[in-house]
Write a structure and sequence with these properties.
By secondary structure, the chain is mainly alpha-helical. It has 13 helices and no strands. 74% of the residues lie in helices and 0% in strands.
Length: 277
């Protein structure tokens, strides 16, 4: 009993340490965003600002077009998430239900493709988009985000499809439902948590992406939020710390809000009692 109790205490302690490790950068970012320039230059930093101020937020919006950049990021991320899910869902169903050699090879390629570094693929992507005249275009950037998110989205959804009992589809076939009707009316609703989780992954990946946007977008009116955040760093590498922290804090809010809204859809036993006897 003592061994079990001490082991559980150790697990909770490790979990608490991990949560503190994850939360520290965000909490420090929030604290920095509300500090005055004088306090930011202090040799004795504090967690809680002594004189909280909103001047950093005002300065951030005055110096850089954050709203326009956020709009570009939101448009690109939403489009990439929706398109990736629409493409990945039927493909994942085929790969999960028809376990042929081709499907296994495709699954292996999906996993291996995630190991490719960005630098390796940026030149071919740049040349393709140049031939399509989509350089400095949000459409071209969305295409890149979809291609980049699709392999992992497929890998995630294949696992979710395999978790759906085949008995449900067999029961639907006995009741006279065709393959398409079964997919739409039976399988797809049970895949809702997986689809939501996959869309969230694709959205956050596109929202936070920096390298592709930096290379493919040339004019200021097309730049996304991660690229605009670098403008708070001067030519000599000196960061305007207060406005940068304020802008970075605002940039993290959409991901947090979306996750808070849909996290109930990600977790939950939607298959409990679903198998037809």
């Amino acid at each position: 009993m003592r061994t079990s109790t001490s082991g559980r205490v150790g697990q909770y302690a490790a979990l608490l340490a991990y949560l503190v490790f994850l939360a520290f950068p965000f909490l420090w970012l929030v604290s920095t965003a509300f500090k005055s320039p004088r306090e930011l230059g202090s040799l004795h930093p504090t967690w809680i600002p002594r004189d909280p101020t909103l001047d950093n937020f005002r300065q951030a919006f005055d110096e850089q077009p954050l709203l326009r950049a956020a709009g570009n990021s939101l448009l690109a991320a939403l489009a990439a998430a929706v398109i990736a899910v629409l493409i990945a869902t039927p493909l994942a169903y085929v790969m999960a239900r028809h376990r042929t050699r081709l499907a296994k090879a495709a699954t292996g390629w999906v996993v291996v493709s995630q190991a490719f570094p960005l630098v390796l693929v940026i030149i071919p992507l740049f040349l393709v988009l140049k031939n399509l005249r989509l350089i400095n275009s949000l459409v071209g950037l969305v295409m890149v985000y979809v291609v980049w998110a699709l392999p992992f989205a497929l890998w995630m959804l294949v696992g979710y499809v395999r978790a759906v009992p085949t008995e449900l589809e067999e029961a639907a076939a006995v009741d006279g439902a065709g393959r398409l009707r079964t997919l739409v009316s039976v399988t797809a609703p049970l895949l809702a948590p997986g689809i939501v989780a996959t869309a969230l992954f694709a959205f956050i990946t596109a929202w936070n992406e920096f390298f592709f946007a930096l290379v493919l977008l040339k004019t200021a009116d097309k730049q996304t939020l991660p690229v605009v955040l670098t403008h708070f760093i001067g030519a000599e590498g000196v960061a305007d710390l207060g406005p940068l922290a304020a802008a970075a804090f605002l940039a993290t809010l959409p991901s947090l809000v979306i996750f808070a809204v849909i996290q109930r859809r990600i977790t939950g036993g939607m298959l409990t009692g679903a198998v037809k006897s």
